[in-house]
Amino acid sequence: MNILYETVAWLTDPAQWSGPDGIPLRLGEHVAISAGSLAVALLIALPIGLWIGHTGRYTTLAVNLANLWRALPSLAVIAMVLPLTAPLDPQLGFKVYPTVVAMVVLGVPPILVNAYAGLSEIDRDLLEAARGQGMSEWQVLWRVELPLALPVIVTGIRSSAIQIVATATLGAIFGFGGLGHYLVIGFATLTRGGLGEMVGGALLVAGLVIVTDIVFALLQRALTPHGLVLDRARSTAAA
Amino acid sequence: MAGHLDDLVGRTLQHIWLTAIAVGIGFLISFALAVLAIRRRSTYGPILATSDILYTIPSLALFAALVSVTGITLLTVEIPLTMYTLVIFVRNMTAGFDSVPPDVLEAASGLGYTGMQRLWRVEVPLAVPLIVAGLRLATVSTIGLVTVSSILGDSFGGLGFFILEGYRRSFPTELYFGAIPSILLAVAADLLLARLQRRITPWTHDAEPVPA
After folding, report:
1. So where are chain A's domains?
2. Predicted pLDDT of residue A215
3. 10 Å Cβ neighbour count for A75?
């Protein structure tokens, strides 16, 4: 019960809730880097995924590349970027850029693959009908394909977001703050009462991951067109 | 130089070994859980939810937290690695079993297959594409996570050892010495398993989308 006691003691200590090393600030850092990385990943992955799904070109290449891309270990990516950006800026180049790059790398494949998969699942007849009604390619994409594929696309974004929030903790090994900071410091001082800090930090990260998941689940529900609700009751499986 | 090469080989083998144990044990546990989830539908939700929750615990924290329980041993490395494979395997295996059409199951039962026979001769073979897809994903993600176990000290971490030591000594060459081979290892494993996937399921399309 030592572990429970120390964790509760650490989490409820008022000192933890203010100042430059306080939970609100670290949580803010964590959310900011996750949201920023997700935004960049979206900007890269969504247009490419939609374009591939819409045109049906380069699908084999894109899906295979996305799978390979997914194989890149985050810790190794952070380590690779670090010596490159460190000379650029002694603050951001060391502590922020490497983690952001690794999180963008992590976030791109699920968004790209799901955007493509979402569009490619759509019944071809529907697209023919849309074109037959005189819709332009943009209108087909915007008014037919996107709404129909939205649940699958949001699933991809959700999966990216969860992985980013959980993995951004690794940045702390290389000096980025965020909630991972507590894990690293707690582990380093394990024999001197760091246990509570470490477990407390882990709980905060896990909590943030769960909140992220819930937010995207709600978003998914809100964005699913009514006609699809019954259809999509069975959720998508990972493959 | 020769010394460094020996180190590299040793760490690469350790990396593969640590990955193989976790993926192997994770596969077996998940298979049992997936069969249970399919046979007893009431356990389906809880099993998936539990494996999902385990996945939210940051790897860094789990490695570190276990030190106070199991010390710095192989168990401390393997418990988290195995746990993280569960969510991937259980999801893919249940999805694989679920993909078997009910008619097929009924036909099998009608032919007099017992539950066990039906599982091994009908459900498992039909679920193979998704199971192999899960194996590929689990292996690659475990290779990535092994690097994180380097925080436990010099005895573990596979190629991640060089990454962390290179960082601590501010020695980029060593950092790359760990990072590049660990990326190559993950990519090689992915390509190898993709080949296996095509070999045993030649009927699936080459660029089958892999939705998250």
Report:
1. 2-233
2. 94
3. 33
Q: How far apart, in whole angstroms, are the C-alpha atoms of residue B212 and residue B210?
A: 6
DSSP per-residue string spanning chain A? -HHHHHHHHHHH-GGGGSSTTSHHHHHHHHHHHHHHHHHHHHHHHHHHHHHHHHH--SHHHHHHHHHHHHTS-HHHHHHHHHHHHTTT-TTHHHHTHHHHHHHHHHHHHHHHHHHHHHHHTS-HHHHHHHHHTT--HHHIIIIIIHHHHHHHHHHHHHHHHHHHHHHGGGGGGGT--STHHHHHHHHHTGGGTTHHHHHHHHHHHHHHHHHHHHHHHHHHHHHS-HHHHTGGGSPPPP-
Q: Min CA distance, B62 vs chain A (Å)?
A: 8
Asked if B210 and A113 come within 8 Å (Cβ–Cβ), the reply is yes
Average pLDDT, chain B: 88
Q: In chain A, which residues have their Cβ closer than 8 Å to the Cβ of B159?
A: 76
Tens of pLDDT, residue by residue over B65-106, are 888 788 889 999 999 999 999 989 999 999 999 888 889 888
> Residue B38 is encoded by which pair of tokens?
């399919």
Q: How far is CA A158 from the centre of its chain?
A: 7
Give the global pTM.
0.86
Total residue count of chain A as it appears in this document:
239
pLDDT in single tens digits along all 239 residues of chain A: 577 888 888 888 888 888 778 899 999 999 999 999 999 999 999 999 999 988 888 888 888 888 788 888 999 999 889 888 888 887 777 788 999 999 999 999 999 999 998 998 888 888 888 888 888 888 888 888 888 899 899 999 999 999 999 999 999 998 888 999 999 998 888 878 788 888 899 889 989 999 999 999 999 888 887 766 655 444 444 43
Domain ranges of chain B: 2-200
Angle in degrees, 0-180, between the axes of helices B59-70 and A195-223, rounded to the nearest 10: 140
Would you identify the CATH topology of the domain A2-233?
MetI-like fold (1.10.3720)
| CATH class for the region spanning B2-200 | mainly alpha
Instruction: State the amino acid at position B104 in one-letter form.
Output: V
As for the ipTM of the complex, it is: 0.82
DSSP code at position A61: H
For chain B positions 55-114, those within 8 Å of chain A (CB to CB) are: 55-62, 64-65, 67-68, 88, 91-92, 94-95, 98
